[in-house]
Amino acid sequence: MGRLSFPSQAFTLTVFLLLLESPISCARTPRHYSESKQLRLTPERVTRLHFFFHDTVSGRNPTAVQIASAPSTAKSLTRFGFLTMMDDPLTEGLKPTSKVIGRAQGMYGSADQAELGLLMTLTYSFTDGEFKGSTLSVLGRNPVFHPVREMAVVGGTGAFRFARGYALARTRWLSPVGDVIVEYNVTV
Predict the structure, then answer these.
(1) Ordered mean pLDDT values, 10 residues apiece, the chain (188 residues)
(2) Any idea what DSSP says for residue 133?
(3) How far is CA 107 from CA 112, 143, 162, in A?
(4) Does 43 fall in a domain?
(5) Is there a domain that residue 151 lies in?
(6) Is 26 among the domain residues?
(7) Which residue among 40, 67, 104, 145 has its CA within the 20 to 30 Å range from the CA of 27?
(8) Which helix (H) or strand (E) holds 34?
(9) What angle do CA 85, 87, 93 make, to 5 degrees?
């Protein structure tokens, strides 16, 4: 058996230099980028928000409605397979009559067969106050009967452009029919 021969160092250096000059090189900045408007990033700052989420599934004007379910959902202890769309008010205080500062818009569904664990994908859209016109996007698992649940903040717009962080949820009130008020502490 013969020995494998490897390229010489000079050959390797030549190939490397040719790759640097090639149009497919990742190391080069594309022409259109240098000619486009440059994005200015400001220094990062930490913002802490506190508000209440009012999810109403009952009554004449529910803010959350079931839009889909699996054939087996009704037989499941965790309601596995249901999907709900929401447009819930966010308030400054615990009471539903507190000042509305935004909306939680998105959907949640039962994604756990062992316990009631929701997959939530939602946007906090702020309509009043310092962050009016800005949004935060949240995605994560919400095991609703745990005292505190943590979900990821994965983005935002306006004052929260490039946001990342977390949202801590605590159930403050739950009715027998499923209406709920959840306290949120968000750090971005």
Answers:
(1) 49 45 46 54 88 97 97 94 97 97 98 95 97 98 96 97 97 96 98
(2) T
(3) 16, 15, 22
(4) no
(5) yes
(6) no
(7) 40
(8) helix 31-35
(9) 135
